[in-house]
Amino acid sequence: MSFVLECLIAVAIIAILWWYINVTSIRNKLSWVFKIPGVPLLGNGLQFVGSNTEHFNTMFKLLKMSNEIKSVRLDFIHKTAILTADPKLIEFTLSSNSLKILNKGEVYRFITPWLGTGLLTSDGKKWKPRRKIITPTFHFKILEQFVDVFESKGKIFIDELSKETKNNGFDVYPYVTMCTLDIICESAMGVSINAQKQKHSDYVTSVKNMCRIVVERSFSPFQMFDALFYFTNNYKTQKESLSILHTYTNNVIKQKRKELEASDKKFIDIEDDFGVKKKMAFLDWLLQTTIDNKPLSDKDIREEVDTFMFEGHDTTASAISFAMYLLANNPKEQAKVYEEAKSMFGDDKEKSATFKDLQEMKYLENVIKETLRLYPSVPIYSRCLTDDIEYQEGKIIPKGTQLGIFAFGVGRDKDYYKDPEKFMPSRFDSMDGKTPFSYIPFSAGPRNCIGQKFAMLEMKSTLSKLIRNYELLPSVPEHKLILVPETVLKSKNGIKIRIQNRK
C-alpha cells in the first residue's frame, strides 16, 4: 500500500470519527426530545422518500407519536432536526433576538444563487442592519402608493378570467400567480413585465424555473449536494435562468441610478421621517438610502429587489388561490364578503378601492386570516442553530440542529382551534390571543414577514374586485385538493373552481 493511499485512508477515518463524535454529541444533548425510531445510518430518511404529497401526513403521524409534546427528533445521515408544532418552542425560537437562533435553515441555500444573501437568506449579523434599512419601505405612507398598482393589475386579472365563465372547472393558480407577479414587479422595480399578457416571456419563465428547481433540490437526495447538482439538467436551466433574471434586474438598477443622478436628488437617510412627494418603487427607495452616509452597492440592491420579487408573488398567489377555493365551496361566507363589498361600493363593479376602503374590509380580512390558518403560504419554517442554546432548564438545543416549525400543523391543532378543519372566518372576531404562536402564517418575532401589510392590502384589493365581478362556485365534478409543501403551499392537482358573472 502506497504512502499516499495510507494518508487518504487515515484522513477518511479521521473525518468519519469527527462526524460520528459530532453527531453523537448533538443527539445526546437532544435526549429530552421524543426520538422517532429509524434505521441505522439512514435514520428517518426513508420516511420521507416518495411523493411529497405524503409529507404532511407523515409529519402529522410523527408528531402524534410524541403525544402531548408536539415535538419530535428526526435523524438523517448528515444532520439532526427537530420538527415541532409546539407553540411554546415556536415562541422561543421565533421571538429570540439571539444570533445563535436567527439563521435560516439549510434548505434556504438552494435559493441563494438567485437571491444572494438578501433579507430572506442572510445570517443574523448581516440580517439585522438590512432589516433596519428595509423596514421604512413598508410604512403605511409608502404602502398607500401601491393601491393604484393593485387596482390596475387587478383589472387585467378580472379581464383575463372572463374567458373561463363557461368552464365547469379551471385551475385559478396560473391566473393568480401572473397577476401577483405583475403587481410585485411594478411595486419592487417600478417597471411592468406584463406577465398576465405575456405569460411565456423569458423573465416569467425564468422565475417559474427557479421556483421549481429550489423545490426539486430540497427533496432530491442527489441534487441537494452541489457537487452532484452540477451534472444535472436543472443546473444548466438554473444557470440560463439566473442570467436572464440578474441581467434584467441589473439593467433596471443601472437605468434607475442614471435617472437618480440626472435628477440630482438627495439621498434619504433611514432615520428621516416618511414624507413622500411622488410614488416610489421599492428599488427607488433603496437607491436613495444610505448606511453611514454611503449608498448601497448595485449587488446589495439586486439581492433585496430579487428577494422581494421571490417572496412577494408566489406566497400571495397561494393565499389568494386558496381563498378563492374556500369561498367557492362556502357560499354563505362568500355572500358575507359580497355584502360587505356592496355596502362600500354599491353596484359599481369598476369603482377603485382606496387605501381607506381596504383597511375597512374587516370581514374579508377575517376570510384571509382563516385561509392562511388552514393553508399557510409557507407551511414550514426552518432555523439552524449556530451555537448551543438553553431552551428550558436542563434542555439544550445544540449547535447544528435544524429546527422545523410546522406552521401547517399548529394551525390545525384542535387544542387551539375549535373544529380546526372547518372554514370559519368569524372565529377571528373572538380570538383570545392566549397562544399567539399558534397562528404564524407570516412567521413571528424579529424575522417575521416584513411585507405582511403589503400582502394583506394586495389580497384584499384582488379578492374584493374579484367578488364584485364574479360569483365563485365549486367545480364540476367536485375538486379535492392534493396539498404539497413546495417553496410555498400548493395543490398538485391545481385549485379548481367555476365562475359566473355577477348580475
From TrEMBL:
Gene3D superfamilies: Cytochrome P450 (1.10.630.10). Keywords: Heme, Iron, Membrane, Metal-binding, Monooxygenase, Oxidoreductase, Transmembrane, Transmembrane helix. Heme binds at residue 449. The chain crosses the membrane at residues 5-21. InterPro entries: Cyt_P450, Cyt_P450_CS, Cyt_P450_E_grp-I, Cyt_P450_sf, Cytochrome_P450_Monoox. It comes from Brassicogethes aeneus (Rape pollen beetle). Belongs to the cytochrome P450 family. It holds the Pfam family p450. GO terms for molecular function: heme binding; iron ion binding; monooxygenase activity; oxidoreductase activity, acting on paired donors, with incorporation or reduction of molecular oxygen. This is Cytochrome P450. Its cofactor is heme.
